[in-house]
Amino acid sequence: MASEETPLLISSGDGDGTAHEAVYDRFTRGQKRWIVFIVSFAGFLPKFVSASFVPSIPQVAKDLDSTHVAVSLTVSLSIFASAVGALVWAAYSSFYGRRSIYLCGMPILCVGSCGVAASTSLRSLLFWRFVQTFGCSGGLSLGAGVIGDIYKLEERGTGIGIFQGATLFGFAVAPFLGGAAAQYWSWRNLHYSIGAWGLLEMLLIYLSLPETSHPGTMGIDKITRRRWIHITWVNPVSSLWLLRSPNLFAVMLASSLVIISDYVLLVPLAYTIGVRYGITNEAIIGACFLPNGLGNFIGAPLAGRLSDVVVKKWRKKRKGVWFPEDRLRATWIGGLFMVPLSIAASGLLTTYVGSPIGLWLNLLCLYTNGMGVDFVMNPIGSYNVDVVHSRSAEITAASVGIRSVILAAATALVIPSIEHIGVAWTDITAAVLALVGQGIVFLTIRYGDRMRASVDVGFSTIQNN
Given its phi and psi angles, is residue 431 left (phi above 0), alpha (psi -120 to 50 degrees) or beta? Predict the structure, then answer.
């Protein structure tokens, strides 16, 4: 009878595993670090492009003679564009390779950014925001795929930790930089700068990023007769079909419930911490996001290293047998303690502590929440790459896409919830959701073998991981 100690993915011999591990020796340690830097730089962009726009909404509405509510539609549109783009770029990266798809996306970002900066009407702004976000949205899924390509199983968590730290740091520092640009510079110049950033990233990729896909695994490699420019239709929605697997759907849902806490704290920050402590300057409000970003930046590599240590420990305990859900054991620090306690404490502090000490303690809660989210998101992201390694970019894109829909709905409810039940109860509700998410992770650890066996979506084995 299957149990927690029963592995589904086992090695049938050392020969195949040793041969496969040689694939990860194609690049030196220094080359791997440079590759991680480049994809982290690209992964920083999607969250930054999305979040840096929010503080400039009043200025944009004034310039375009529109309303705050109408201009705010660009936030939901960018979330939708990010989900669609991630699915498209991930699906095509499995066929054409990571490098080629990066080089296709970055010019679209550059054109879209210049279009946003030059917009003279709400209609043109909405169109160019979609183009801009679509162009850079592959940064998350492609980056996870690249790291899965170059790092072996027991090193992968650390690489993904560094990458996720950069992407989440982008989400946290973007409001500060966006607010500073709106206050002291121009929202149009900010987007011209993003276009220049995209151009720089494109040059870096063109000049120094090698193709990382494993030899013979790209779809185009399997076509014997192909044209000089070979264009093939790849169904981007097919990635979502991976989520029919109960374990992959479960960890996607769990990560969504945990990361909601980030959005509950950060999205209404001007209306919660800003109003409670009398902060009206947009740049200072943006600076309040920085502790969360610092927590992300510090926590992600630590979470990645911890998840690798947990994999090694349990594999040694099982005398070399790999049980994929072991990596998820690293989530309990964040999901059970750091995330729920930090967001619940922030709600209570904002409601009941009005002195400067309340503000400083709130900033500490933001930092703790940033770290805690990493201790959940990193092991889950690495787990996804582990179990469907050959389609790592696609499962990352599918998870990001559905998570974006969940977060878009949750974000729309945050401010109405604060108005109806108050900051404290809204934050406590988010803490309970985080605990539910961690409960789902514990169930996946306990019954992961049965969940994988119930629906096989082409899970990886130790030989091809």
Answer: alpha
**Of 255, 260, 251, 441, nearest in space to 343 by CA:** 260
Report DSSP letters for 98-137, one per residue: HHHHHHHHHHHHHHHHHHHHT--SHHHHHHHHHHHHHHHT
Helix (H) or strand (E) holding 19: helix 14-21
Q: What share of the chain is helix, strand, coil (3-state, %, to 5)?
A: 80, 0, 20
CA distance 396 to 381: 7
Cβ atoms 139, 43 nearer than 8 A? yes
Give 65-70's long-range contacts (Cβ < 8 A, gap of 24+): 66/122, 70/122
pLDDT score recorded for residue 228 = 62
Q: Tokens standing for 447?
A: 């019954």
pLDDT tens column, 196-239: 989 999 999 999 999 888 776 666 656 666 666 667 777 888 88
- Mark out the alpha helices in 353-391 (DSSP H runs): 356-387
pLDDT mean over 362-382:
94
Conformation bin of residue 153: beta by default, left when phi > 0, alpha when psi is -120 to 50: alpha
pLDDT at 379 over 90: yes
**Torsion angle of the four alpha carbons 275, 276, 282, 286, in this order, in degrees rounded to the nearest 10:** -130
Distance CA(460)–CA(324), nearest Å, equals 10
To 5 degrees, how large is the angle CA 396–CA 47–CA 128? 105
Question: pTM score, two decimals?
Answer: 0.81
